[in-house]
Amino acid sequence: MKTAKIVATNRKAYHDFLIEETYEAGIELKGAEVKSIRAGRINLKDSYARVEDGELWVFNIHVSPYSHADIYSQPSPDRPRKLLLHKKEILRLLGKTKEKGYTLVPLKVYINDRGKVKVEIGLAKGKMLYDKRKAIAERMAKREIERALREKQKGE
C-alpha cells in the first residue's frame, strides 16, 4: 500500500494559529489543475476556507497553470475552489466558525494512496503574540536539551 505524497504545506498556519481539529476534504479541480498540483505548483500562503450557502469554499490557493496545457482553457490560478465534505461536517464547521476566534485554514495538500488530491483543513484559533514567543522559547529550549545530550554522548 502506498502512502500519501504531501505536495504543499502551510507552515505559517502552524505559527499563526493553534490548530484544534483537522479534517480531510476533497477539492474540486478543473482541467489540468491536477497535473499542475502533482508537479508541486501550488501555494497555500494566506489561504483560508469559509462556509457559504451550505458549501465549503477555499480561497487564495494559487495553482499555477500547467505549462503543457492549452493556455485558453486554463482556469484562473487564484479562483475559489469548492471543498468536498459530508453535510454534517460542514454544518459542524459552520457552527464552530460562528464562535469567536475560530477560522478554517488549509494546512496541507496531498495526493492520497488512491491518487486523489486532498486538502487537510484545520479548525484554528488565532495565536496572540505572547503565545508565539512562548512557542519559540519552547523550541529553543528543546534544541538546547538535544544539543546537550548529543555533546554528552560524544564525550563518552
Q: What would the keywords be for this entry?
A:
two-stranded antiparallel sheet; alpha+beta; 33% helix; 156 residues; 7-stranded antiparallel sheet; Small Protein B, Chain: A; 9 strands
Strand content: 25-35%
- Beta strands, count: 9
Q: Could you describe the largest sheet, including whether it forms a barrel?
A: 7 strands, antiparallel
**So what's the oligomer here?**
single chain
Structural class: alpha+beta
Q: Taking all residues together, what is the mean pLDDT?
A: 87
- How would you spell out the order of helices and strands? EHEHEEEEEHEEH
Side by side, the strands of the main sheet go: 1-8-9-2-7-5-4
CA gyration radius, whole angstroms: 19 Å
User: What is the name of the CATH class?
Assistant: Mainly Beta
